[in-house]
Every structure is written in structure tokens, then in C-alpha cells.
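To: structure desk
From: M.T.
Subject: fold request, one chain
Message: Could you run this one when you get a chance? Sequence is below, nothing fancy, just the single chain.
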Amino acid sequence: MDTIRICRHCGAAIPVETQGGSCVECGSDPGADSFVEATDGPMTPPTPAELAPLLPGLEIMEVAGQGGMGTIYKARQPQLDRVVALKILSPELGRDPAFAHRFSREAQALAKLNHSNIVRVFDFGQAGGFFYLLMEYVDGVTLRTLIEQKAIHAEEAQRIVIEICHALQYAHEEGIVHRDIKPSNILLDKKGRVKIADFGLAQLIGEEAKNWSAGSQTAVVMGTPHYIAPEQIEQPGKVDRRADIFSLGVVFYEMLTRELPLGRFEPPSHKAGVNPRLDEIVSRALAKPRRRRYQNANEFRAAVEAATGHFHNLPGDMRRSNGKRKWRWLPRFALAAGTIWLAVVTYLLLKEHWAEQKSVLIPAGALEAFAAGPEGVGIGRRAATELNLTKEQVQNVNKILRRYQRDFTALERRHTERSKNAAGHVVMTIPPFPQEMDELMSRMWTDLATVLSAGQLALAKTLHFERFFPHSGRKQVTVEIWQEDNGEYRYVEGSEPAGKNGGAAGTLPPRLRGLLLRDSQKTNN
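Reply: Done. C-alpha cells follow.
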């Protein structure tokens, strides 16, 4: 079995000729006990023709990829008329008779993982001495390929990390730690959706590797150098979900800078000019002591989401109009006037109710806070009243809704198609995306369940919370945008826009401005 040696300080592979010196990556003097061996067992993959008689229910099409844990084939299930991925694990695993039991136990756990950002396991078994997993086939590219082909914009890197955090949190709650998060295990399909592959396989094969090295004084480290957490080298038997947080921090840094965080690495903002708020996020994820890292994927996700903020001009974006700066106070005045108007209307509508009940059902400030949030004035009073929200609940509900409004906008951006009409106006067509919308709503209700009681949550589902989003994502939306002589952007939105002179037009809101700016950036690039 081939071995490599790894520096415990930075995770770098140590060439054989420099075993006695300092690490070439971080310059540290690790000492004699700071190098460990890691398995790197290569295999000669069987050809599709060799596999065909072993798996008669599949049509083996081609080799789709090969890694340290086995070989992946693109295959087809004729009975279900679907394309699948067949992973054949290394035949050396068959040496240990007990591996079959462990494989069955771990594969059953993996097959129970059902998340939109995790590659599904459909079936597993053993055929002709080969252990295999039958999985969902993702038609796309690995994040490794994406990083090598082009620079990933910070906004896109944040979206990818957020989706990975969703998957990791789900798997960790199911008791499964990935142990080998790296760009080659992260897939993106043709619609840009993130899928994590090889969940739990590092642990499964790690058990076998320990048996192979029984009697050796050298610890066996499972994972990929440069991505594994320090404890995976120092204490392989005491790895928990925080190891995945560290590995994701490495991936995040690499997406932002196209470099690995080796030794004393520079912050991402110094290397790539990204938002300095990301420096602290990366630094905390890569903290060597586990107690200083994010303690779960939800914490990591919340920090990244907070850093996204609202839409900002990015390099290559269109400049905002500088015309009529003296009217910049108008939105603030309108907000203040609207709040006063809402307070007056609320008082008049609830005056009789207060007199009869002799008590206040809505805490002071809760109604105004809710109505000023994403739900808006239209149904704010009814929702706050019927749910009987406390002020703290209102604030937490609004935070969740604003987060999923940003997620909705990211979905909308991904599906937007842009063109120009005869008048030279920008026409944006947003096709339906019902599956992604269902997944977003499902996650939103899951998060709301942490804020609302069971009774409040059940009642909330009858109040049409989908109104928080600009549209349902189930019908095609067309937006026509043009720029007035004074530099102001105007728009008409609907299934069939009336055009500049055919209907009432509005001032371009931040959501559509973000779509316009993003498309402009693509054109400039």
C-alpha cells in the first residue's frame, strides 16, 4: 500500500527526501512524531465490459471519474429509464470479512440521507468481489473543475457555501460526518445547484484502513491533505462535525482566492479584494482549536448570510445614477410618513377591540416592526394579531423572512434570461422554478418552527406566507426595464408587460436592479 507523509501543522504532504527537515509549506519544525502516514491505495478499475455481467440490471456506459475511494461509472437503469452513477469501491476492501457488515450498516445510513444538496444513494451491494453504491447521477461539473476554469465571484462562492452548510447541518443532525469535504466532492449541476458526494465514505474506508495497518505505530489519517482538520491528523478517532467546518473553510478560502490557506496565509480581502467581513468568517472556520470554530453548520451559514447584506455595486456593474441627489431624503420621509399612517390606521381599527377586551393583544412596537418588514402593510396587522406574536418573535420572524427573500432572489437570478425588444428596452424573462421554490419554502418553514410554537406554525401556514416573495416561482414572469432621460430606471412587470407607454410603470426596486446589474456584469466580462 502506498503511503505519504503529512505535516501536522499545515497538512502539507512532505517529500521523502525532506523527511528530516522543516515543512516546505509552513516552515515549521514538526519533530519526529509530527509526521503520519495516510493511505493512498490505488486501484485498477474494471472496465464497463467486465462489470456488465456482474450487474445485469444496469447498462454500464462509461467511466465518469476516479478518486481515492473508488471509480465512478455512468450507467442507466432500463426499468426505471434513468441515468445513475455507479461507484465501485477498491477491491482491496474485500480483504476484511467484517467489512461487508460495516459496509451494509453505513450504506443503509447513507441511503436514508434525503436532502436536495446531497447526492442520493439508491442502492448498494456486493457483486463479483466488488462493493458498489448506486447513486444519483449529477450532470454537471465538480467545484474543482470550476475553480480551475475560472475565478468564482465572491457572491457565487457565498451561495455555494450556504448550500453546503444546509447539507452539512442535515447530515450532522443525522449523525453522519463527511470527513473529506473538498472541491472534487462538491458537484454543481447545469442549473448551478450544489450537491455533495461521498458522504460518510471516508469513515467507512477509514475503518478498513485501520485494519490494514494493524500493529503499526503510525496513525492512519483519512481525508485529503490541505483540506483535513488538524484533529484528523492528531486524533483520528475523535473527529466530529467541526472537522467538516474546517474543511469547508479551506474550500471557501480557495474559492475566494484560488489558493490554499497554507502556513500563515493572507486574509481573502488582501489576496482577492473581497469584502473584509469574509476575513473573520474564514479565520474562524479555520481555527485550529475546535472550540474556536463555528460549532455547527448553521452558525457558519448564518455568518455568511449576514455578510451578503443587500445588493452592492461590484466591479463591472453599471453605475448608479447621480441625478437629483437633493431628493435622497425622500425614501426616508416616505418611510416615516408611512409608519405614522400605519399607526393611525391601526389605532382606529383596533380602538373598539381594545375597549372591549381591556387588554393589549399585540405587544407595543410588534405590529409596526412586522408591517415594516418583508410582509408589508397589507397583511401585517392580520398576521401579527392572529399569531399573537411577541416583539421578540416578530423580530426573529422578520430576520428569517429577509434571509429567504435573499435566497429567493438568488434563485430568480439563476433562472433569469435577458434580451432586448424593438424599443431597446431590457426584457428579462424568469421561467418557473417550482421545485427550487418548494425546497426554499420547506427550509423556511423549518426555520420558522424554531421561532413559532406548533400552534402558531400551523396557523401561519394558512396565512399565505408566499406573499412575502415577489411571485410564486410557478409562472413565467416577464420584466421590461428602460432608463429615462434623467437616468432613472423604470419597469413594468407581469406575464405580458404593457410597455413604456402602455401601462403604469414603477421605479426599479433593489431586487430587479440586482438582476439588471448582474446581467450587465456578465456582458462586460
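Reply (cont.): Residues 330-357 form the longest helix (28 residues). Let me know if you need anything else for the meeting.
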